[in-house]
Design a protein that fits this description.
3 domains, mainly beta, 11-stranded mixed sheet
C-alpha cells in the first residue's frame, strides 16, 4: 500500500477476510515520504511487510491505534520519525506461519532520554506473537526501542507461543557478538514493562526459555533510582556446554546520574582472581566464569553512584561449596561480607561503575571466623570499632588498621586474640584520633601464633561537622516530620525543601540554639515522591538530607 499524500487517516478498522497458509510478502503497507496517522481505536492489519521510507519530504507514522504485521518491518532512514501511543503486534497466524519475523532499521531513540519524542523512531507498545516464537532485529545497527511495554505473549498462554526477541539475524555464541540492541526507554523500575516474561527466581528454566531479550538490552534509569531487571541471555539449550538461555540480573539503584545502562551475557569468560583470595571467611577456590560466564554492563555516563547487584544464573555447573559471592571485573569488590549459600538469587551491594560480573565461592575455613566488623561514630566525638568472632584457631592478636584512602593502612591498636576457641567473643576499641568530615577506613590484620596473617573486610565511618548536623524523622514520611538540627552555637538557618528537579517546595528561616533543635516540618501536604531538605547557616555552610514522602 503506497501513498504520497501528506496525510492518511484510518477512521475504521481494516480487515482482510480468509486465510492464506503460504508465504506472503507482496501485500505491503508502504509509507514513502508520507505522513500516516492511525487514530485511537482504529485497527490496521497488514498481511505482508511494512516499509517506512523517507524521500525529500521525510516520512512519519503517528500510531495511536493498533497495527498487526504478518510480514517484516523495514524503516530505512534515521530521519524517519515514529510517534503516538499505539501498539504494533508481530503475528503471523494467517500468512508466513513458518517464518520468524524481523524488524530492520533504526527504530530507536537516537540519544538519551532527552531525545524521546525529538530524535525518536521508537515503538510505544510492542507485542510479539510469532508462531515460531521468535522476532529478531535484522542487521548491524538495527536498534529498536519501546517507550512503554514489550509483550512476549499478547494472546495469553496457550493461544500463542511465548516469544523471544533476538538482537541479531542469527544465534551468536556470546552477547558481545550480537549486532543490534533492544532498548526499554521507559525508566519505570521493575519488570512491569516486560509483559509475560518467563523469569523465575528459584529454578532452571533454560530448556523452555522465551520471554526475554536474546542478545543486548539497554534500559533507561530513573534519576532517583529503583530496581531494574535485565532479562537477558543467549540461545536456550539444556546442555551446559552450549549457550545458556536466560541469565537474569537485577540492579538496585539509589540516587544516580545514569541515563541508560546496557547489558548482555558472555559465556566462557575465565573470571579468575589471582593469588589466594579470601572472602566470606573462606579461601576462594572456585570461579564460575569458565563453566558459566559473566554479565557485562556498560553506561555512557559515570559517577560515584553505588548500587546492588542480584543474579539468577541458569545452566551452570555449581561449585560444591556453600559460601558464594558476586565478583566484579575479576576482583573482590562491593560490600565485603555480602555472601550467600547459593548463586541463585545471590546479592551484593556497594558496587560502583560497570564491567564484568560473575560469582565465586570457597570451602576452606579461615583461622578466625569473623561474623561482624563495625565502625560507628559515638556522640560525634570518636569512632568505635567493634568485631565478633564465633571461633578462633591459634589466633595471637588483632591489629586494628586505619586508612584515609582505603588503600594505604597503618596499625593504630592491637588486641589479644583468644588463641583456640569455639566460643563467641566480642572485641572493641575507641579511636579518638579522628577529625570531622573525613571518611575513615578500618580493617583487621589477624595474626596467628606462627606469624601467618589474614585481613578482614573493610568498613568505614565518619564524624559529622562540629558546626551543625541535620537528620529527619521519621523517614519515609507519612504525615508531618521533625527536622533535628544539631548546632554548636545560636543563630539563624534557612530551611528549604526541594523536589528531585530542584524546584523549591517551601522555605523558611528559624532560630537555633546550641544542642539539638527539633523543627516541625509541614510535609503532610506533599505528594508521594523523594525530596531534599537544604539547611544553610549564617556562615553559608549548607547541609542536605533526603527523605521519601509516602
Amino acid at each position: 500500500m503506497q501513498n504520497n499524500m501528506q496525510t492518511i487517516f484510518f477512521l475504521v478498522a481494516l480487515f482482510m477476510a480468509g486465510t492464506v497458509v503460504g508465504q506472503q510478502h507482496d501485500y505491503e503497507l508502504n509509507v514513502q515520504g508520507a505522513e500516516l496517522f492511525i487514530q485511537a481505536g482504529a485497527d490496521v492489519y497488514v498481511w505482508g511487510d511494512v516499509h517506512i521510507e523517507e524521500n525529500a519530504t521525510g516520512g512519519k507514522l503517528e500510531n495511536n491505534g493498533f497495527i498487526e504485521v504478518q510480514g517484516n518491518w523495514y524503516s530505512v532512514d534515521d530521519n524517519y520519525q515514529q510517534s503516538g501511543t499505539g501498539t504494533v503486534r508481530f503475528e503471523n497466524n494467517d500468512v508466513n506461519v513458518t517464518e520468524s519475523q524481523f524488524i530492520s532499521g533504526d527504530n530507536a531513540v537516537r540519544g538519551g532520554q532527552s531525545q524521546i519524542g525529538v530524535n525518536d523512531g521508537s515503538f510505544y507498545n510492542l507485542e510479539l506473537a510469532n508462531t515460531q516464537g521468535l522476532v529478531y532485529l535484522n542487521g548491524a545497527g538495527s536498534n529498536t526501542d519501546v517507550r512503554s511495554t514489550i509483550n512476549f505473549s499478547p494472546n495469553g498462554s496457550g493461544n500463542s507461543p511465548v516469544n523471544r526477541l533476538r538482537t541479531d539475524a542469527t544465534d551468536q555464541v556470546n552477547g558481545a557478538a550480537y549486532q543490534a540492541t533492544f532498548g526499554m526507554m521507559s525508566n519505570t523500575p521493575g519488570l512491569g514493562n516486560f509483559l509475560n516474561n518467563t523469569i523465575t527466581a528459584n529454578g532452571n528454566t533454560s530448556a523452555v526459555d522465551n520471554g526475554y531479550i536474546q542478545g543486548k538490552l539497554r534500559r533507561a534509569i530513573f534519576p532517583v533510582g529503583g530496581d531494574y531487571g535485565f532479562p537477558i541471555g543467549l540461545e536456550p539449550n539444556t546442555s551446559t556446554a552450549a549457550a545458556r538461555g536466560v541469565q537474569y540480573a537485577n540492579m538496585e539503584h539509589g540516587f544516580n546520574g545514569y541515563d541508560v545502562i546496557t547489558g548482555y551475557f558472555e559465556q566462557g569468560s575465565p573470571n579468575v582472581i589471582v593469588g589466594t583470595p579470601e572472602e566470606c571467611n573462606v579461601i576462594i577456590d572456585c570461579f564460575s566464569g569458565a563453566d558459566h560466564g559473566e554479565w557485562e554492563f556498560t553506561s555512557l555516563s559515570s559517577g560515584p553512584y553505588s548500587y546492588k547487584m542480584t543474579i539468577w544464573p541458569q545452566d551452570f555447573t555449581s561449585c560444591p561449596n556453600s559460601d558464594f559471592f558476586i565478583t566484579k571485573d575479576d576482583a573482590i569488590t562491593g560490600n565485603l561480607g555480602d555472601c550467600g549459600p547459593s548463586p541463585v538469587g545471590l546479592s551484593r551491594g556497594g558496587f560502583q561503575g560497570f564491567s564484568s560480573f560473575s560469582f565465586a565461592s570457597g570451602t576452606t575455613p579461615l583461622a578466625v571466623e569473623l561474623v561482624e566488623l563495625k565502625a560507628q561514630p559515638i556522640l560525634n566525638r570518636y569512632i568505635n570499632v567493634s568485631w565478633t568472632t564465633i571461633s578462633e584457631i591459634e589466633n595471637d592478636r588483632f591489629e586494628v588498621q586505619r586508612s584515609l584512602d582505603g588503600t594505604n593502612f597503618s596499625t593504630i591498636n592491637m588486641v589479644a586474640g583468644a588463641g583456640t576457641s569455639n566460643d563467641a567473643a566480642n572485641y572493641s576499641i575507641d579511636d579518638y584520633a579522628v577529625l570531622p568530615e573525613k571518611l575513615y577506613y578500618y580493617r583487621l590484620r589477624i595474626v596467628d601464633f606462627d606469624g601467618s596473617f589474614e585481613f578482614s573486610n573493610v568498613v568505614t565511618a565518619q564524624l559529622e561537622s562540629r558546626d551543625y548536623s541535620i537528620t529527619i524523622s521519621p523517614n519515609p514520611v507519612k504525615g508531618n516530620s521533625i527536622l533535628n538540627i544539631g548546632s554548636v552555637e545560636s543563630g539563624k538557618v534557612e530551611i528549604t525543601i526541594a523536589d528531585v528537579l530542584g524546584r523549591v517546595v517551601s522555605s523558611k528561616i528559624v532560630e537555633v540554639a546550641p544542642g539539638i533543635n527539633e523543627i516541625e516540618m509541614q510535609t503532610s501536604g506533599l505528594s508521594s515522591a523523594p525530596y531534599f531538605i537544604y539547611v544553610t547557616n549564617e556562615n553559608e555552610i549548607r547541609r542536605v538530607t533526603k527523605f521519601i514522602k509516602h
